[in-house]
Amino acid sequence: MSKPPDLVTGDLEAPHGAQVGPSAGPASAGSGRTAMHDLWLTGTDTPADLAGFTSEGGQEMVPDESEATRKAQMGTSVLDDYDTAGSDDDETQIVNLGPQHPATHGVLRLQVEMDGETIRRVKPIIGYLHTGMEKTAEALTFMQGPTNVTRMDYLSPLHNELCFSLATERLLGVEVPVRAQAIRILMTELNRVASHLLWSATTGMDIGAISMMLYGWRDRELVLGFFEKTTGLRMNHNYIRPGGVAADLPDGWEDDITGIVTGVERGLAEYEELLLGNPIFLERTVGVGLVTADECRAYGVTGPVARASGIDYDVRTHFPYSGIEQYQFEVPVFSGCDVHDRFLVRFEEIRQSLRIVEQVRDTIPAGDWRTEDRKVTPPPRARIDQSMEALIHHFKIFTEGFKVPAGETYQAVESARGELGMYLVSSGGSKPWRLHVRGPSFANLQAVPAMLAGSLLADTIATLASVDTVIGDVDR
């Protein structure tokens, strides 16, 4: 057995072969390795040459408080929202919010710098839920990909599956049957309804309307019951796959859709009666969490948050997919820029999604629910019992997967939180060479400091909840 290295004083390989600091030792003879420094043990004095790298403590926002550093910290030139004028630095304090708190789905920590009850700056700290899903995608076949990506934004799993499948099909050059496209639109719009209902329920409770939690959960259950009946699961479905969907719609699905539309529309009217005329709700939401249209563009904010700030952008109308352009619907846009209008946008989006769902129910054609291209679709079950070739093909497609021609593509869909994009690269094998995801939650979270700076601490939860961040969509 070889001798283990000395972890305290052993030679370390400098990244660029350069010596760092006075403690650097001589180069190891014949190995080309350079001794960089002795490791610093926690609890001992900080070596002088490392002091510059370890000066940031848990209670310090940034070591340099200059204006240029603030710009670099925020990554934008939008500075007029940061209320720093007239404040005495000796009177400020930093409050850590999270990482466990009720206003986000997942774990998110906010460092909030306070001047009395007024927020000066906010620093979101992410990484508590990192799953490495983009890297994991490189180890899974294209057939297995939807099983992986469906877990990123776990409140919009079908949008994740659709985006990955569309990107794969574009590289394959495969056409999906019209019925399969209609099913995809039906399921993703229902997913948008379920996600907005969950947001309405939890955000209503966050600002004190506890009954909203009961009503929102009640109506969302109608959609989840249909998902379970169709896909076998209530979330993380792996239902939309390259080439089509996993199974056709169940018998009696038209009646289920009618029941969902009736139940959710009735519930929506109750939400509006409960909330929109309530003076406490108006006090907690109107003029709270402001973010302008210019700031949304600067931070890349999309979805309901951007549309509540007057930006008329929706992937479904600007870059249609799966035949959604043939259905009649409107993109609701409001100009309040605050938490209140984010409620209005989502309520109206629920109505528009139900409108699309009804059109799919009334116009869906008969036909195949997955492509007949044998390169990506396994043979029918009955053929496996009759043909050795079919059995071999079935075995290979589920073990080796199908090969995708070399190339790269970017595909976007409109998820419940905004533009969800996937950049997919294939080297010609059966697994992606690279997958990078443009998660809407990640971009939208960047705008939270701009929303909160200058506001009261009591508005933090309402503002953060209104962004509807799913941390699984941030930490990939």
Give an account of the 3D structure.
The chain has 476 residues and is α+β, with helices and mostly antiparallel strands. Helices cover 40% and strands 10% of the residues. It is built from 17 helices and eight strands. The strands form three sheets. The chain has a three-stranded antiparallel sheet with strand order 1-2-3. Strand 6 and strand 7 form a beta hairpin. It is globular and about 80 Å long. The two termini are 39 Å apart.
Percentage of residues in strands = 5-15%
Mean of the pLDDT scores? Answer: 84
Number of helices: 17
Tell me roughly what share of residues is in helical segments. Answer: 25-40%
Spans of at least 5 consecutive residues with low confidence: 1-43, 54-59, 75-82
Structural class: alpha+beta
How do the helices and strands follow one another from N- to C-terminus? HEEEHHHHHEEHHHHHHHHEEEHHH
Rg, nearest Å: 26 Å
Biggest sheet overview: 3 strands, antiparallel
Largest sheet, order of strands side by side?
A: 1-2-3
Anisotropy-based shape = globular
Q: Let me know the number of strands.
A: 8
Distance between the ends: 39 Å
